Amino acid sequence: MQISEPAEYIILGLLRNKPMHGYEMFQHFEGGTLGQILHLEMSQMYAFLKKLERLNYIEAQLEVQGPRPPRKVYHLTKRGRDLFLHWLTEPVEKPRDIRILFLIKLYFVRLYLPEQIPDLLSQEILACQQFLKHLEARYCTSSASGKMDSFEHVILSSRIHHTRSLLEWIHTLQIEMVGDYASDSGKRKHEG
Fold this sequence. Notes:
This protein has two domains: 6-88, Arc Repressor Mutant, subunit A; 115-191. The protein is built from eight helices and three strands; from the N terminus they run H-E-H-H-H-E-E-H-H-H-H. It has helices at residues 6-17, 22-31, 33-37, 42-54, 78-88, 98-112, 117-145, 150-191; strands spanning 20-21, 58-65, 68-76. Strands 1-3-2 form a three-stranded antiparallel sheet. It is elongated, with a radius of gyration of 21 Å.
């Protein structure tokens, strides 16, 4: 069993910042930016926490709260930190993963590794370009052979247009975010 849900990476990312209890993490989903990327129920949160604990990516310690029952406070293990940092800097392979996984990566790279923003965006552009070439080659081959029925043509055409739109959007992000990062970097150097 490995990490299979985007929310599990979000949990690792939140815990990279500081130890937290489950409800505190849930609040990041419910009312914050992360909730705009991914919806999560409280019961799912606790199931993911148990799974991550079984995988030794996180550990829990009981925290006494006066007369109330103690609560579990979770923190990342070295294994969890290493996995998260490796995952964070890898581009997503399929355009369908950009809407959730890529946005999660970008959210945490911006917080923890802002100097990696240009690389992450460049790698994502390359991954999308490779996927687009694959789709276009498949389209050409299928069209030339006459083996594609009309609805397969619609689906493949849709995927090609969707991937092109994503590429355009990521190029725009690259211009905006890399410019913002360079501006922030310059300010920090000047202030330091």
